Amino acid sequence: MNWLPAAPDFRGDLRAALGSPGPADCLEKLASLAGHRLGFLETIQLDRALDQLRLKEAAGFSPVLLAILASSTVDHLPPAIRVAGLRRNLLFNIHVGAYGQYRQDLLAPESSLHRFKPKVILFSLTAREALAGIPLAASVAQADEVIARSVGELRLLWRKARETFNATIIQQTFIDVAEPLFGS
Q1: Which end of the chain has less Cβ packing within 10 Å, N or C?
Q2: How far is CA 1 from CA 33, 89, 101, in A?
Q3: pTM as predicted
Q4: Measured at the alpha carbon of residue 52, what is the angle toward residues 46 and 165, in degrees to the nearest 5?
Q5: Which fold, 61-184?
């Protein structure tokens, strides 16, 4: 976010925040630091500092229980989401489902997702996942049928998530993970 001001001394400000007398003061300083332009490393460092506080709630911050259900690796998302939340006085507690197990996590009552009880669920699925059943030689009618079935299943999963957790559902645009046919 290039429009945000650069932190003049990120490391020094981070050390000062971590040296604050109490968790509330530290959190306020971390939130202030989150309002600056941050690179990947600064985002990770700020997220780790936030994690050290072990806060689930704090005065002036709204807690958010977010579950990310995905068909690909999404481990890179939680630090950025938590730091972006700090900018908006949100404290994210994030559950990342097992790799590619979003159906099982949602449908199995004994899953860790059910113990977490999210209030927001992000579905992060790849285009490959959505189009997996379409053979290369499929006719238009066959392709339309597979797509309709995929959309129907996705709607069923959204409905199940809303009914089970009374959660807000976010569907991320399908991620294209296909390799270029002729390379880069």
Answers
A1: C
A2: 14, 18, 32
A3: 0.85
A4: 90
A5: Rossmann fold (3.40.50)
Mean pLDDT per 10-residue interval, the chain, length 184 residues: 86 95 94 95 96 92 96 92 96 93 92 96 84 80 86 92 96 74 63
Residues forming beta bridges with residue 170, ordered by sequence position = 122
Angle at alpha carbon of residue 156, lines to 62 and 71, rounded to 5°: 70
Main-chain phi, psi angles of 4, to 5 degrees: -75, 150
How many other C-beta atoms lie within 10 A of the C-beta of residue 169?
14
Question: Which H helix or E strand runs over 64?
Answer: strand 62-70
Residue with token string 């309002």 = 35
Q: d(Cα 69, Cα 172) in Å, to the nearest integer?
A: 10
Contact 113, 97 (CB under 8 A): yes
Q: How many CB atoms lie within 10 A of CB 69?
A: 25
Whole-angstrom Cα Rg for the chain = 20
Helices (H) and strands (E) in the chain, counts: 8, 4
At CB < 8 A and 24+ separation, what contacts does 78-83 make? Answer: 78/47, 79/43, 79/44, 79/47, 80/43, 80/47, 82/47, 82/50, 83/34, 83/38, 83/43, 83/46, 83/47, 83/50
* pLDDT value of residue 64: 97
Instruction: Parse the chain into domains and list their residue ranges.
Output: 1-55, 61-184
